[in-house]
Amino acid sequence: MSPVLSIPPTADRTSEGSSAITDSTPRTVRELGEFALIARMNGGRSQSTGVLLGPGDDAAIVAAPAGRYVVSTDMLVQDRHFRLDWSAPGDIGRKAIAQNAADVVAMGAAPSAFVVSLGCPADTPVAFIDDFVDGMWIEAHRAGASVAGGDVVRSPLLVISVTAFGDPPDRPVLRSGARPGDTVAVAGRLGWSAAGLALLAAGADLGKFPEVVAAHRVPQPPYDTVLGMPADAAITAMADVSDGLLADLGHIARSSGIAVDVDPALLGDPALEPVAELLGADSLGWILTGGEDHAFVATFGAGQPLPDGWTPVGRVEAGSGVTVGGEPWTGPVGWESFAEGG
Amino acid sequence: MSPVLSIPPTADRTSEGSSAITDSTPRTVRELGEFALIARMNGGRSQSTGVLLGPGDDAAIVAAPAGRYVVSTDMLVQDRHFRLDWSAPGDIGRKAIAQNAADVVAMGAAPSAFVVSLGCPADTPVAFIDDFVDGMWIEAHRAGASVAGGDVVRSPLLVISVTAFGDPPDRPVLRSGARPGDTVAVAGRLGWSAAGLALLAAGADLGKFPEVVAAHRVPQPPYDTVLGMPADAAITAMADVSDGLLADLGHIARSSGIAVDVDPALLGDPALEPVAELLGADSLGWILTGGEDHAFVATFGAGQPLPDGWTPVGRVEAGSGVTVGGEPWTGPVGWESFAEGG
């Protein structure tokens, strides 16, 4: 897999027992050097059972017991997707894994492995890398998988690219299966990440809302709520909420050839009200258009019971587009990667 | 898979028939916008048979008929792994795919799919993206696969992360199988990319050595030489030459617990002599330590015939380390991602 994975775990002697930072420990990745850095990143980790061959060769080998696998990839760029003054290195590692795991789970697939490419400046502290890698592994384990390999290169700013893999069920849940009459439901929090970002951007007293700020730093996709659904759940379509509820429902609406109406009365969140009051903001805007919480939105067959952990928020109708209480939403609609302010 | 793949092919109307750049075509990715950019990147492409679900949902689905798959990932950063004044966009796309395909093939696996994350400035010309994507597809087809999905984000400089997948044979070829007495052999060119880079760096008259410069811009890993080997070939270990022959043989030596001696008399390349003469350089240095050609180096059982396309370059011995004509190599030894000059 590139220069960086060319040291097999059996040759990983320099990193063993060196996890504590001491005065003699190299302080930057330049001092440590590429191969020692990789050995350190891979040292002492236990791969999940699906990873048949981990770091140390040209490529990893991952099991695909279903004869096929789900794959998704995302890139995070410093100062665009995270800020070093707002997030700790471990938070960034967790977020990078979580947002990719959510894409895999949004297909109904159980995460099996991740590979990660990291670009970083040569003067990046080794302690930063340690914490970042720890964060990745914490979230990978939370998602039931491990980090099977990757690449490290020099870059003027931090860039993280994660590719996530998963084992799909017999019938993966696509965006294209929603039908008129279906119930629209959400698993997980909406608007918390956007509210946390607003608190950080406003320089607000963060101590008042630690959970909201933490939700921005580390999304917590409810993997188990999706993967624990009974096999006979009447789910017809699903997506993870990365662009914002309205934007991601828009993707389902287009893919399925249907319309969605969201009921605002079902969407309020008392926990966000004091934040909105403090900042003079509208919490419904965060809930409808804030991305990055990596909640899941799905549609379920008309009249069928919702599985545990799912909350109804609207209904599928004939037509096209997404409305809120029967009206077009006139506020901001999601997040465009190349928009001026985005 | 992230915002960028949320438009299914069936919704890809804006990009149909719009591949020609006209006066009314948006000239930058900011003008085009993220979703239209993705539609344009995916429009009119035919997925290979192994890609069961391509762009348009949270994740792609790829076939793994062997019940397992090979995966490798690499990141390329502008001005570090390519320069915009030295390589055309199509060259960069081809190189990004080729270096990842080579990692997959170095396991003895046939490439099945790629996913790509691209970070680029908002003022990147759409024409640049068109040519870059065309280059990726050309090389993906050359490797027998297709681009199954990806991500596009804004970044202050170009960053490309490719993850490559492949179908492994019953016995993947690892780095750890070399045994004393084995023959060391190479398939593909060595030193050409380094020589081409030296010509570019020296501002030499490139017209004199077009093939050498082209070899730097677009590596041409001999996929077919590896994948076309008879099933009973006596191959015991393999790696792709990305760091340089000595460095990559060093990985095989460490993984296998053996030593390698390279015979310099077997390594000269007449095509590189006039380049070395022009630049006052040593062509053997390029051949032994220049990476990026993505040739393949492998070991074959003692006394066994080499398959077509493989040239002997040395021998496996008991011990450790890599020597050249029985002596340690005292020139530069490969490419360190975080070295000062690297």
Automatic annotation (TrEMBL), chains A, B:
Q: Which residues bind ATP?
A: G150, D151, R175, S242
Task: Keyword check for Magnesium, yes or no.
Answer: yes
| Chain positions covered by the region annotation Disordered | 1-25
Annotated positions binding Mg(2+) 3: D58, D103, D240
Spans through the membrane: none
Composition bias of kind Polar residues appears in 16-25
Binding residues for substrate: H81, E292, W335
- GO terms assigned for molecular function: ATP binding; magnesium ion binding; thiamine-phosphate kinase activity
Name the residues that bind Mg(2+) 5.
D243
**Residues that bind Mg(2+) 1:** T73, D74, D151
Q: Where does Mg(2+) 4 bind?
A: D58, S72, D103
Q: Which residues form a coiled coil?
A: none
Q: What else is known?
A: Reaction mechanism of ThiL seems to utilize a direct, inline transfer of the gamma-phosphate of ATP to TMP rather than a phosphorylated enzyme intermediate.
This chain belongs to which protein, by name? Thiamine-monophosphate kinase
